[in-house]
Amino acid sequence: MRRKLIAGNWKMHGCQELCKGLLLDILKEMPKDDSIDWLVCPPDPYLLFCAQLLDGSPIKCGAQNVSEYIEPGAFTGEVSASMLKDVDCAFTIVGHSERRTLFFETNEQVARKSLAAFKAGVMPIVCVGETLAEREAGLTLNVVKEQLEVLLALEDNCPEFSRAVIAYEPVWAIGTGQSATADQVQFVHHAIRSLIAEKNTRAAQEMRIIYGGSVKPSNAAELLKLPDVDGALIGGASLQAEQFTEIGKLCSN
Ligand code: PGA
């Protein structure tokens, strides 16, 4: 049985005051049962602060990005996976579409970043998803398959492979207010699970595939009950404690 994961991607938002206020509100408003997993991904400078605030709580901290370089060295501006581990990060997002588009991250870099994360014991949340032009050209599954292949290639080297998370985030649904429909989401999630199964059937059963792209309380119930949807990666709505916890409540029932 896969536990649902409700993850907040705060992107480049916040300050210490906002982090503290938001986390205290989330802790107050979240359901008290422990049937699902909770994660917040603040900007790097606030990771330690947030991890300390969340110590002993059911919410884990994750990063939004990680360096592909593993060993310490002359890599100005980079943050290694072992540094993330050192400040109690359980997960790191890898290959978010904003990083692919704005910072030209390639599938190969996404693979190296995922490997670096695995090696440090930080689980990668690998984002995949097509642009609107790719969907309209009927290329959704080709794109997702290509993005996924780099991760699947790591399976032989990573004993914790099935603890990674895949986030299906259609680029056209991110931050637009227009989420993919339940049929579109289930279709792609099922295809992703089948692709994993071709490599490793046990991992396909265990690995969580979460959906991201304009998830909010009004559409979460329908999306989170789909058989191959194991949670959500939430941007905008994760900055509002009430909306974030409401989405979690919808899947803990
Ligand atoms: P959104 O962002 O919920 O604001 O669409 C999702 C994401 O980018 O992870």
Question: What overall form do the CA principal axes indicate?
Answer: globular
Q: Helix/strand-derived class?
A: alpha/beta
What does the largest sheet look like?
Answer: 8 strands, parallel, barrel
* Low-pLDDT runs: none
Our count of helices gives 11
User: What's the average pLDDT?
Assistant: 97
Quaternary structure of the protein: single chain
Instruction: Tell me roughly what share of residues is in helical segments.
Output: 40-55%
- Ligand set: 2-phosphoglycolic acid
Strand content: 15-25%
Radius of gyration based on Cα positions? 17 Å
| N-to-C CA distance | 15 Å
Strand tally is: 8
Strand order of the largest sheet: 1-2-3-4-5-6-7-8
SSE pattern, N- to C-terminal: EHEHEHEHHEHHEHHEHEH
Explain this structure.
Helix 1 (16-29) packs parallel to helix 11. The protein is α/β, with parallel strands linked by helices and 253 residues long. 43% of the residues lie in helices and 16% in strands. The two termini are 15 Å apart. Strands 1-2-3-4-5-6-7-8 form an eight-stranded parallel β-barrel, surrounded by six helices. The model has no long low-confidence stretch (mean pLDDT 97). It has helices at residues 16-29, 47-54, 81-86, 97-102, 107-120, 132-136, 140-152, 182-199, 201-206, 217-224, 241-252; strands spanning 5-9, 37-41, 59-63, 89-94, 123-128, 165-168, 208-212, 231-234. Helix 2 links the parallel strand 2 and strand 3. The structure holds 2-phosphoglycolic acid. 2-phosphoglycolic acid is lined by residues 9, 169, 174-175, 212-215, 233-237.
